[in-house]
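Moderator note: this is an archived Q&A kept for reference. The question asked for a predicted structure of one protein chain; the sequence and the answer are reproduced below.
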Amino acid sequence: MFTQSNQNILLDDLEGESMVIINFCSPGVRNKSKSKGVELSYAFLGQGNIVPEEGAFNAPFPEYSKFREFKASLSFPIIRKPRFTMIGGYSYVAEQFEIRAIGNDFQGLIKDIDNQNLKRTRFKISSSYSLDERKYVAVRVQTSFNGTYPEVFNFDSRYAVYSGGLVFGWKKNEDTELGGGIAWSKNFRRKFLRVLPFIFFNKTFNDHWGIELTIPTKFNLRYNISPYSLFLFGVRFDSENYSLDQSELDRQIMLNHSEIFGGLEFQQRIIPWLWFNLTTGIRYNLHTSFEIQANREEILVFNPGNNLFIKAGLFISPPKKFFNSTK
């Protein structure tokens, strides 16, 4: 949930004449997977069928030639203090179905997602505060606007998703970190505030092996080839909602999807600050549906298939001292 950063031990950290070094605690463990200051990535799934889960279609079924995703994101320091760090962020994500065959049923719905950019424009602020040498608290708040609006930004409430999280972390040492917290969200599909607990555990066993675990959303087994090259083997859960217009009936509808990703990610430094990553694996569909936005009436539940996905990208990972102040 939060950008990794470690504090530096300098003369300003000396506590008076006692000469006791105060090393303020911050999120992250040694050899952890790299934080992304700037990221550009492209992902796609192979072709597949849009198959109804309850027999709502008659064959032939709609077919898509590919499903792709483009992402651009930026994180930047706002406040850098020895005990307190605040980081701002912006990201733009566009998902898109490229329909090859419409099929016989629900043609209006299928046409409405053909080559449409399902956009997520997101703004966030993350911060962490060191309580002492072993404990810290962190918080994140973010607002996202999800839909098929033509502009780069659209702040209409019909697209708005509000979410955040509060974390308490404890570091036994530079190789062991654990903690927990709550995550909350509210959006155009779910008007009430939903609050869910989570726990996390990050462990570096040696110079090569480690795990990065957040229950219930992510598990990664990490293998560091070197300080500049690593593998992540794991699974994660993902879920998104989009607001769009059904042109045939002139009404607002929602496209909802949730899935589990399982696969392998490779991260490799190219030059200082600049990294390349490549991810491949299986995207397993859990639930995909269209709903009427006004009353959440489900129009259609379908399965786009469980397909191989490939993602490639470049990202900038600044040195840890860039996010932290020595003053």
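Archived answer notes: The radius of gyration is 22 Å.
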